[in-house]
Design brief:
The complex is a heterodimer of chains A (119) and B (115).
Chain A: E1 5-7, E2 10-13, E3 19-24, E4 31-37, E5 43-50, E6 53-56, E7 65-68, E8 75-79, E9 88-95, E10 109-110, E11 114-118
Parallel strand pairs in A: 2-11
Antiparallel strand pairs in A: 1-3, 3-8, 4-5, 4-9, 5-6, 7-8, 9-10, 9-11
Chain B: E1 4-5, E2 10-14, E3 19-25, E4 32-38, E5 45-51, E6 56-59, E7 62-67, E8 72-77, E9 86-93, E10 104-105, E11 109-114
Parallel strand pairs in B: 2-11
Antiparallel strand pairs in B: 1-3, 3-8, 4-5, 4-9, 6-7, 7-8, 9-10, 9-11
Chain lengths: 119, 115
């Protein structure tokens, strides 16, 4: 009963390179969320996806960042031309379809995170 | 615009005593509030939630209180244990009318429980 799987756990990139972070949601979960935690800060929402659809990308920076959740395979958060300010922990979370949940809060299950360091 | 605020960055409590973590919010449309706990190098884990139509929810040593008129909620941990030492995040969601299930998190409070 694997939880939310993220890889890599640690990624080091030089300025200008690309970073790709992967997330496999919990079995049975069809919704994926990406959050970013900068040093000494809280979790900032980035994007919410369902299979092949971006539902809410209101937290995504306008440039260099993109996300996808294809029909097959994990969700990918892609950061092009990384800068030092992109250094952070990136957390993926998943949840079931709200229609499948009789009531209650939308509880997100988080992965352990991917820590990106830009040199 | 910080819609969910945790004004105390840290809290230190003696083992066996009560820990009270506070959270304020600005958006009256939030329908659920959740608390998450986070250990270093791990992802946040869900602790307890409360619906906006309730004022209290209890689960073992953890109780969450909601004061809608003050737009304030608190998490009580009784009795506190050293294993409770972690960062606690308050979060809120509002499914209608925004049709998005994202959670909005506060900045967290670091709880340290000492013997």
């Amino acid at each position: 009963n694997a939880g939310v799987m993220q890889n890599p756990r640690h990624l080091v990139r030089r300025r200008g390179q690309e970073a790709r972070l992967r997330c496999s949601p919990m079995k049975g979960h069809s919704h994926v969320y990406w959050y970013r935690q900068l040093p000494e800060e809280g979790l900032k929402f980035m994007v919410y996806l369902q299979k092949e659809n971006i539902i809410d990308e209101s937290g995504m920076p306008k440039e260099r960042f993109s996300a996808e959740f294809p029909k097959e395979g994990p969700s990918i958060l892609r950061i092009q031309q990384v800068v030092r300010g992109d250094s952070a922990a990136y957390f993926c979370a998943s949840s079931p379809n709200r229609a499948d949940v009789s009531s209650g809060a939308n509880v997100l299950t988080f992965g352990a995170g991917s820590r990106l360091t830009v040199l | 615009d910080q819609q969910v605020k945790q004004n105390s960055p840290s809290l230190s409590v003696q083992e066996g005593r009560i820990s009270i973590l506070n959270c304020d919010y600005t958006n009256s449309m939030f329908d659920y509030f959740l608390w998450y706990k986070k250990y270093p190098a791990e992802g946040p884990t869900f602790l307890i939630s409360i619906s906006s139509i309730k004022d209290k929810n209890e689960d073992g040593r953890f109780t969450v209180f909601l004061n809608k008129s003050a737009k304030h909620l608190s998490l009580h941990i009784v009795p506190s244990q050293p294993g409770d030492s972690a960062v606690y995040f308050c979060a809120a969601s509002s499914y209608p009318p925004y049709n998005t299930d994202k959670l909005i998190f506060g900045t967290g409070t670091r709880l340290q429980v000492f013997p």
